[in-house]
């Protein structure tokens, strides 16, 4: 039987759920998934991606306007950061460039995330940096579900294969993304990777070419949804269902 969003938000082990969005290759759609999932799940988006193309900047946050960074203060003082509140987008704990040099050990990152979820009383969606680092591993170790976008091209499938081998025991939902008409070998390779350890798959997400030209910093899934975005939003709704019903 399917869970409701409210049932899922109650979480387990005394804290609300934590979802990580992760990919070992940049450009596969991880941050887009993270932003939309956080909005649809009424979760706080925690941005662990320090690059200039990160979710924080896509959502309109500019670190250079601030003297103190919420993540930096939270890590240093063992405190819980206060999210930035915005209309028609997820509440955000933003990243900052120096985070690349200021990463706590992964066990501390996991402890921070668990405490933040409990003290904020809300689910977290963590947008990780592409590949492996202390922040990414800390988020993966604490996550109840890890959402992995998979583009069906050679380089992305190679990265996915290595990621799945490394994270064989993790709760992955592998979601084919930016799909047009992939060749037969790519479909076969994708199925082989997913089935290697019996991971779940998410809904197919089509290649929405308008996304690369989009400049708005609100969630795509926020009302009113433009007609051209309806197919994409339907895919995100299906991904939400996969997340909240993951077993």
Report low-confidence residues grouped into runs of 5 or more: none
Order of helices and strands: HEHEHHEHEHEHEHEH
Shape: globular
What's the total count of β strands? 7
Put simply, the count of helices is: 9
CATH topology: Rossmann fold
Question: How do the strands line up in the largest sheet?
Answer: 3-2-4-1-5-6-7
**CATH architecture call:** 3-Layer(aba) Sandwich
Radius of gyration from the alpha-carbon trace, in angstroms? 17 Å
First-last Cα distance: 11 Å
What about the largest sheet?
Answer: 7 strands, parallel
Q: For this structure, what is the CATH homologous superfamily?
A: P-loop containing nucleotide triphosphate hydrolases
Mean pLDDT, all residues: 95
Share in helix: 25-40%
Provide structural commentary.
It is a single chain. This protein is α/β, with parallel strands linked by helices. It has a single domain (18-244), classed as 3-Layer(aba) Sandwich (Rossmann fold). The protein has helices at residues 5-9, 30-40, 55-58, 70-77, 106-120, 134-142, 154-166, 184-196, 230-244; strands spanning 18-21, 44-47, 91-93, 124-127, 145-151, 172-177, 200-201. A 7-stranded parallel β-sheet has the order 3-2-4-1-5-6-7, sandwiched between helices. Strand 5 (145-151), helix 7 (154-166) and strand 6 (172-177) form a beta-alpha-beta unit. Helix 2 (30-40) packs across helix 9 (230-244) and helix 7 runs parallel beside helix 8. The termini are close together.
């Amino acid at each position: 039987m399917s869970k409701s969003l409210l049932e899922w938000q109650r979480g387990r082990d005394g804290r609300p759920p934590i979802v990580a969005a992760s990919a070992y290759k940049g450009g596969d759609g991880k941050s887009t998934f993270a932003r939309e999932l956080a909005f649809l799940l009424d979760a706080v988006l925690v941005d662990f991606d320090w690059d200039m193309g990160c979710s924080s900047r896509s959502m309109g946050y500019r670190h250079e306007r601030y003297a103190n960074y919420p993540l930096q203060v939270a890590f240093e003082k063992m405190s819980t950061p206060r999210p930035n509140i915005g209309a028609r987008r997820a509440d955000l704990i933003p990243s900052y460039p120096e985070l690349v040099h200021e990463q706590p050990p992964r066990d501390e990152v996991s402890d921070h995330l668990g405490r933040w979820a409990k003290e904020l009383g809300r689910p977290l969606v963590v947008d990780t940096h592409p590949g492996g680092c202390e922040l990414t591993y800390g988020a993966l170790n604490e996550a109840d579900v890890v959402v992995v976008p998979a583009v069906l091209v050679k380089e992305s499938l190679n990265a996915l294969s290595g990621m799945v081998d490394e994270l064989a025991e993790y709760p992955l939902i592998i979601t084919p993304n930016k799909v047009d008409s992939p060749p037969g070998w790519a479909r076969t390779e994708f199925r082989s990777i997913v089935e290697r350890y019996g991971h779940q798959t998410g809904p197919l997400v089509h290649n929405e070419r308008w996304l690369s030209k989009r400049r708005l910093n609100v969630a795509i899934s926020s009302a009113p949804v433009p007609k051209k975005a309806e197919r994409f939003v339907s895919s995100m709704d299906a991904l939400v269902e996969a997340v909240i019903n993951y077993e």
